[in-house]
Design a protein that fits this description.
This protein has 357 residues and is an alpha/beta fold. It has eleven helices and twelve strands. The strands form two sheets. Strands 7-6-5-4-3-2-1-8-9-10 form a ten-stranded mixed β-sheet, covered by helices on one side. The chain has a two-stranded antiparallel sheet with strand order 11-12. It is globular and about 50 Å long.
């Protein structure tokens, strides 16, 4: 375990830095939700894809928007994060991303991997894709049941092999969403993934958002969480490229132990997102409430919105909650991640106090 005093000092500096970002945010990650369509029907989907539909922006609208972003922000230190739904379902996907690449944007993608063949991997390389994360959420039977897709595991594994064999990408990652049912499969998954030439394995817990709210029995228990973080920490101590996701403050014992840096919810300060219909929001996992829509690319210039709006995200959530106010580590947590905040009860729906610390 890293030195606690050093952790506290770093977290205090990060808290002050975060306060500064409220006044002067820095756009680093721009998420593009290219579609709400998906060829899978996952139990945990935060966007409720296939239950919820959306209009989609046209190729020309994306071209105009990306040109505007380059004019206003440049392309240096900017990452386009492409997601959905399943982005590859768009027939004009490669036209959109080739245009972004020609403008000089660095881009990566999250995908279920089922549509990736050797030819698709070659097209992704030609369009300039640098990074990709493919979802594998358990052993074959568990994965297919969780994503309600027969043969999904086999297709995703084939997609990963195609990406690796292509050899053009800077980082090929597997992301695993762990549930109360699948946590017992982590050791077996490690044995499988260890034989693949992937660059990292990102493990996250199923969050109580979107469709996952219909399946509370799959959420992790206190014991599950403790097992999860011990597994990740032990993997990292052994030198394995395993990490937890960016969500949640984990307490002094696990902060900086299971990921490369400390918790910081980036919504609205480093990160913005454009929904499939063009709405400007912060993180795509945050509940789609009207007050979180800051504008739309069809009638607003993103630079003006980013600089003058987004204030709803540039504050500490814990300042509005008495329970958080009594927590001795609130200056490091700030109320947690926006996507897991219960805006009806005004309290976090995921909190690791009394679980991890």
């Amino acid at each position: 375990m890293l030195n606690t005093e050093i952790k506290i000092a770093n977290l205090e500096k990060l808290a002050a830095y975060r306060d500064g970002l409220f006044q002067k945010p820095e756009l680093r990650h721009l998420f593009l939700e290219l579609t709400m369509r998906c060829n899978e029907n996952c139990l945990h989907c935060g966007s409720r894809c296939n239950d919820v539909t959306s209009e989609e922006l046209t190729l020309k609208q994306y071209q105009d928007f990306l040109t505007q972003i380059k004019q206003d922000f440049g392309t240096q230190k900017k990452m386009l994060c492409i997601t959905g739904g399943e982005p590859l379902l768009r027939k004009d996907f490669f036209e959109i991303m080739s245009f972004a690449n020609d403008l000089g944007f660095v881009w990566g993608m999250t995908s279920n991997g089922t549509l990736i063949t050797d030819s698709v991997a070659e097209k992704l390389a030609d369009a300039g894709m640098k990074t990709i994360s493919i979802s594998l959420d358990g052993l074959p039977e568990t994965h297919d049941a969780f994503r309600r897709t027969k043969g999904g595991w086999e297709k995703a594994m084939n997609g990963i092999q195609c990406l690796i064999q292509n050899g053009s990408f800077q980082h090929v990652q597997i992301t695993t969403v762990v549930t109360h049912k699948s946590i017992k499969e982590l050791d077996a998954l490690y044995q499988i993934f260890n034989d693949l030439a992937i660059d990292s394995w990102r493990i996250i817990n199923m969050e109580p958002i979107g469709r996952a709210k219909q399946y509370p029995e799959l959420l992790l228990t206190k014991e599950d969480y403790q097992q999860l973080f011990e597994f990740i920490r032990n993997m990292r101590i052994a030198g394995e490229p395993v990490c937890y996701g960016c969500s949640h403050y984990l307490g002094l014992e696990y902060e900086r132990e299971v990921r490369d840096w400390y918790f910081l919810c980036m919504a609205g300060i480093y990160t913005a997102s454009i929904t499939a219909s063009g709405d400007m929001i912060a993180c795509l996992d945050i509940e789609r409430r009207p007050e979180f829509v800051q504008g739309n690319i069809l009638h607003d210039r993103f630079k003006d919105v980013w600089e003058n709006k987004y204030q709803i995200f540039r504050k500490n959530l814990c300042d509005e909650n008495a329970v958080c106010g009594a927590c001795p580590e609130k200056q490091f947590c700030h109320g947690g991640a926006y996507h897991s905040w219960d805006f009806e009860k005004q309290q976090p729906s995921v909190c690791f106090r009394n679980i991890l610390f």
